[in-house]
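User:
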Amino acid sequence: MFTMGKAAPLVLVWMSSLLAQPASGQEETRLQVLPGSSHSISHSTSASRDTGLLAYQVLPRVVLTTGGDFAWLGLNIAGMEWRAGLFGMFEVQTVDGQPGNFLSVPRGPYLWRGLLGYSLAVSFERLAERWFGDQAKLEAAIAFRHESEHYTGSEPMFVEVPNIGDFFMPEVAIQRAFGPLELTGRLQAKLFLPDRAYRIGPGADLILRWRALDWLHPLLAIFGEYLWARTGAEFDPPVRLADNYLLRGLAGVVFPGVTADLQLVLALSKGHDKGLLAHHDEFRIGWAIRIAMFKPSAR
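Assistant: Predicted structure:
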């Protein structure tokens, strides 16, 4: 059966054939191994909780994250940059809030969340410069991811129902510089496979990064998503499911490094938590230390 998931890579190829311009003279083709981030417009400053980086966050629950989102192969041809990427992320979160915790071992019990995925992204370099000016970027991508959630403890405090599972995630992103101010916008949609708690989950990023100084970049990032639930009667036995939403903002600074960026941010969010706390609708305020290991290569 020909599904949307199978059609997504073909859509990227079709878009590329329409948007690419024939080169005048000899066209340079460049193949790169491990070119950096899995996307030329990196996810590393996104306010999404599904960002693959290293982080210590007090939200006010303590959240420890380890992860990466990198391209294992890149191909630059005909004014387009293709990247084949790998994504992995592992998150441990406390059940109770600990707002006073500062880089110490948090109290249990703990909730576990893991994600694994693959992506294919194409950046339309010529089209972006023609439409939006020098140094602008326009990118389309498709990812396939799996997410699992677990609880480890002596008491069965949480009932594990199908929550996230497998999904495809198409996206389109644009990045434009206005002097030292860099503006990034992204639209995405999680398309869940059958037998999951949700059907579809659109989301969006808006990121402002001020690059006036070499060593410090003020950052403001906003992310929002809404996941539409399936009817619980579709499961055996039937379960109670509800829609899930999250609006989250980060405000802080980025210290750019040679191989990684260090982010110190305040975090505010309204909506549902992640993993087995997905039914908790709360307002949360906290802070985070985040390290993005994989940066886009310079153009």
